[in-house]
Design brief:
With 473 residues, the chain is mainly β. The chain has two domains: 193 residues, no CATH class; 228 residues, Lipocalin. It contains one helix and 19 strands. It has a nine-stranded mixed β-sheet with strand order 1-19-18-17-16-15-14-13-2, with no helix packed on it. Strand 13 and strand 14 form a beta hairpin. The protein is globular, with a radius of gyration of 25 Å.
Length: 473
Amino acid sequence: MSLLACDGPATAADMPLKAPVSAAVYSWTGFYVGGHFGYAAGQTNWTATETGAAVPTLNGSFDLFNAYDPFKGTGSYFIGLQAGYNYMLPSRFLVGFESDVSAPNKIAGTQAFSSALTGQASYNDTVLQFGTARGRIGYAFDHWLVYGTGGVAWTYDKLTRTQLAGTPAGGTAAVGAPEAALLWRWGWAAGGGVEVPIAPNWSAKLEYLAAEFGGRAKLFPAAAQSFNSDLAMQSLRFGVNYQLGADPSKSDVFTTGVPALDTGSFSVHGQTTLVAQYALPFRAPYSGQNSLASNAGRETLDVDLYLGFRPWQGAEIWVNPEIDQGFGLSGTFGVAGFPSAEAYKVGAAYPYARVPRAFLRQTIDLGGHDVEKSSDPMQLGARVKSRRLVLTAGNFSILDFFDRNSFSGDLRRQFFNMAFLTYAAYNPANGRKLADVAACEPEDVNRAVAVARKSFESGASIGGLLFRSFVDS
């Protein structure tokens, strides 16, 4: 835990859209795109064969739900994108279609088992991605849309069997050596939700979905075992949609992008970053597993959402969910000042979700003249006093507030290879896990007092003494 001072505008790659929702009858007809953030639970039932048995002799079941751990940032939450089309009839009944894809943080579970023939082993099911293609039927009550939905669902799972003790009969699995298999599952999904316009061309929705997937078998050759498993999932998600209209070709979204959503008390900004890098061929007479590889290229991709809400006067709650995927050159080894800070937080072949920032900010006016603060990612627009006290508590990077200037602060948009990234006395803006901190700043003094801080990247901790410092090395 640490105490830091913070206030100041955040950089933004998009322009906010401020306007009240029209009081006219709202039409839901047209195409739309959007994003969602939610939490899921799941359960799997499995059976497994043993050498010499004609039918499965082992079975079990376990949950794939993981509670949110604020210290590690893990849990069964997910982030995704959706697109669809609605058509509203004159009777105000609505029919439509929607397809979505989601990347989870950790929808996974493990169960241990043992027998005389297999020894002791564990079986794990991890959902890597999932999605649906569904129809929608609903009714529009004034500005509210209530709907039911159902259709096809899919998941892409990673199944892992690990030998814990002994040797399986007829197999060669070594103790401690995991054996993995990838599996597509197909099934159905059904649920319902409510959706309401919140700004011109923007709507917000809350949706519940249940999905079931039939049994699928996968062979683990080293263990001489075949596992057959099913899967059931339930999810609750919050989403926002941007309406493209009945004729998307008339929308300027394809030339200027989707504008940020800003209602004054609620804000959504987004950013997508793709970094592709390539190391040209070079002579390397000496090389090892931690050396930079010649003639090799890699990429990283992330999708960020910045969700802000004003619960009361002077307060702001911000959550920054994002999807990450990719690798750095040579696994982020071989270069002292590594050429891409983006690669520090990924290292995953499949997209996964995380929440690097989640904090509460309270601004207390102390007097002076009025100052207009613009709406940006991680900052709601407001009129404040020039002398004010800003309290911020939660999970964020010190670079979000300190040492901000026109040339640094967002490593994705400026210098990808900041050489001080590893050795700075603060976590990078795009580090894998940002620090849980608290901040307090008298704005007119522009000075911060660090009281305590914990870095979850190194696990080291500073005590609650004033003026203590900490450097990762």
